[in-house]
Amino acid sequence: MPVVAIVGRPNVGKSTLFNRILGRRKALVEDFPGVTRDRNYAEVTRFDKPFTLIDTGGFEPQSQERLLQQMREQSQLAIEEADLIVFLLDVQQGLTPADQDVANMLRRVDKPVLYVVNKVDGDRQEQGAAEFYALGVEDIFTVSAEHGLGVNHLVAGILARLPEAPKPVTDEEVTRIAVIGRPNVGKSSLVNRLLGYERVVANPVAGTTRDSVDTAFVYNRKPYLLIDTAGIRRKGKVSQKLEKFSVVQALKAMERTDIVLMVIDAEEGVTEQDLNVAGYAHEQGRALLLVVNKWDAIEKDNQTLGRFVEKIRVTFKFLPYAPILFVSALTGQRVAKIMGEVEKVALEYNRQVGTGELNKVVEKAVSSHPPAVYHGKRLKIFYAVQVGVRPPSFVIFVSKAEGFHFSYERYLVNKIRDAFGFQGTPIRLFFRDRERK
């Protein structure tokens, strides 16, 4: 799919234009500079020619501040990835030296560039936009991203200049991986280690990642989508509207993923928030790996690992199936093992078992531990069938579904897991009354 990157100085309206073209509110928008810090990706499919749109952080060519330097690096990476670049300018601020610097840099890029002047919502602003022809360009698009004026004309210009897209990978072929966890546990650093390059801004300041950031990649000839999310904080600690929306983005990312990498800070240990987030992933039926980061910072003896594993298992008692990995995103220690585990979990998440084999396991389980008596009658299990994957889901046809206690459901799930594995994935079990003829 062709890639379009929106670049420009901070606070010229890039995120507002991103949302306007996308047709929904995905990027964070606030009335102060520096809100968007990473490249934010979205697939635009509502026009004749689909394309991937990238919203970038503000581009300050001369700034020496570390965070602004990182944002500039992200913009440069977006420009390298893009097939077409939208250079957004601000009619209210006029043509600035920084705009000149960005324009000079873009002239050295062998890619089509559309020069777009934003915040043009009247004749006076339209006349002011003429100033930007001093950049030496022939065509300038004038828009008001906030009000939608001129955006359709801009989209037509984008579509006319896009290359033909290759055959897209279907959703069924892609395994989506979301990196989830509290702020400052090292999620972005872990993403960068997994991909092998600086894909997202990694900064010791908590909350640096505010948008969910998607990256497509291939591992062992299989397509994956890696989603780096904003840190999730307890509701009481999420005060700013900006952070609240970041939490929503992270939870939405979890809803559209297949596998969750739940990142835990080894120095802080397991927290109540880790438990809540993992519980949400479990309830959503997502496969899950527990990734303990910053393991290099822990003083160890021969029993440290065992004690930590035991504590995790006791705390996450509802996740006995989740693999536990101890890594260091800082040093790269054991990070290479993560994708190997992801591959195994993905297979289990999509695993289908035969009906005959399944019923042998269920019959043996019932023989060893029959269901309870309900309203004076022994409950009966007739047969079982797998009805779905992602996660593996089973229907058990019984005499009286309402009579089965959750403890017996857990017993059957454990027996199915003992027989077939399903490592890393929850199992859904549904009791259903058998229809009488």
Automatic annotation (TrEMBL):
Binding-site list for GTP 1: 8-15, 55-59, 118-121
PROSITE patterns xref list: G_ENGA
Any one Gene Ontology molecular-function term assigned to this protein's record: hydrolase activity
Source organism superkingdom: Bacteria
Keywords: GTP-binding, Hydrolase, Nucleotide-binding, Repeat, Ribosome biogenesis
Pfam families: KH_dom-like (PF14714), MMR_HSR1 (PF01926)
CDD domains assigned to the protein according to its UniProt record, in alphabetical order: EngA1, EngA2
Keyword Cell membrane applies: no
Domain (EngA-type G): residue spans on this chain: 2-166, 175-350
Residues involved in GTP 2 binding: 181-188, 228-232, 293-296
Signal peptide range in chain numbering: none
Family assignment from sequence similarity: Belongs to the TRAFAC class TrmE-Era-EngA-EngB-Septin-like GTPase superfamily. EngA (Der) GTPase family.
UniProt function note: GTPase that plays an essential role in the late steps of ribosome biogenesis.
Assembly and interaction partners: Associates with the 50S ribosomal subunit.
Name by which UniProt lists this protein: GTPase Der
Higher taxonomy: Bacteria, Pseudomonadati, Thermodesulfobacteriota, Desulfuromonadia, Desulfuromonadales
